[in-house]
């Protein structure tokens, strides 16, 4: 039986990123980075963007240990997983779901 191995390629590494927990949207109003507490990130670490097949993965990792904090598969952009913000080209919204069932 033959197995197909799909390799993962590293597309981009940002050594220092900040993550902010933002509340769910109450309306269809555009998301604005100015509404976040930019001086108080909820998490800081490294971001790696990788690709496996036709799917890209945004991975947030501890910058020292490399331990995975969260990841999000991106099948299309813009889309449900990655959204732009209306007031900045520097910030974006990454939808992360907890798949642990807890």
TrEMBL record:
Annotated compartments: Cell membrane; Cytoplasmic vesicle, Clathrin-coated vesicle membrane
Keyword field: Cell membrane, Cytoplasmic vesicle, Membrane, Phosphoprotein, Protein transport, Repeat, Transport
GO CC annotation, single: plasma membrane
UniProt cross-references to CDD domains, sorted A to Z: PHear_NECAP
Top-level taxonomic group: Eukaryota
InterPro entries referenced in this protein's UniProt entry, alphabetically: NECAP_PHear, PH-like_dom_sf
GO BP annotations listed: endocytosis; protein transport
NECAP PHear domain: residues covered: 7-101
Keyword Membrane: yes
Function: Involved in endocytosis.
Family membership noted in the UniProt record: Belongs to the NECAP family.
The protein, known as: Adaptin ear-binding coat-associated protein 1
Taxonomic path: Eukaryota, Metazoa, Chordata, Craniata, Vertebrata
């Amino acid at each position: 039986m033959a197995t197909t191995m799909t390799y993962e390629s590293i597309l981009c590494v940002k050594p220092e990123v900040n993550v902010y927990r933002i509340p769910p949207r109450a309306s269809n109003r555009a998301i604005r980075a100015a509404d976040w507490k930019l001086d108080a990130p909820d998490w800081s670490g490294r971001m790696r963007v990788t690709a496996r097949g036709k799917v890209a993965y945004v991975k947030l990792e501890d910058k020292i240990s490399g331990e995975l904090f969260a990841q999000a598969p991106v099948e299309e952009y813009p889309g449900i997983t990655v959204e732009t913000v209306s007031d900045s080209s520097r910030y974006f919204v990454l939808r992360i779901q907890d798949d642990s069932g807890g």
